[in-house]
Amino acid sequence: MAAVNDIVPLTLPRRQFNWQQWPRYLATGLLWAVLVSLVSVALLRFIDPPMWSWRIQRALFPPAPIAQVEHQWVSLEEISPHLQLAVIAAEDQHFAEHNGFDMKAIEAALKHNEKGRTVRGGSTLSQQAAKNLFMWSERSFLRKGLEAWFTLLMELGWDKSRILEVYLNIVEFGPGIYGAEAAAQHYFHKPAAKLGSYEASLLAAALPNPWRYKVNPPSPYVAKRSAWIRRQMNQLGQITLDRVHAAP
What's the whole-model pTM score? Predict the structure, then answer.
């Protein structure tokens, strides 16, 4: 029998990373990422998401303390046509025509941002829905690229009504207030289906910064912007909603 001092400890050879294989690892990772994104968008065409990235980020890193989170999913038929038209008038008047990207709006936003002190966005409702569902708030080329990818998938796999329905159910209308139903109950004590044009325009007016702009009573900015939104709603008319609901 060997003495204790004669026992040589067993050492396993260290496994080194094979840098020559990294292109294959990268390709495999990208393939899985593409497959996961395809499956996720396909499932959300029929399944209402119980959680989304924007809400998770707000829960983990809120700009200020949130007393209570309010959210209730409703179908598009349970959301007032006034609110549907108000967000289109305020955020994306070419929603029914474009394929997810409004190049004229993007070009106009770039020119405005070069000359002005304020920053104007050129995102469509489809891009905003993709951002709220899958993205984080930090602005970067990576995020914009991923946002464009998910926007393209949603435009290819969903109809416009589904995009609008998801957007109106997950968009933030105030601190901890997500979706049309929660906003209608919180600010006006009525279901989203009963919102009038004035109430709908107030909610749409606060969308650029719902943590800053007050809906009820409206801040001066919200009151002014809501009046502009109502004028746009009158110009767009019911025909705009009909085109959205009929669009593939």
Answer: 0.86
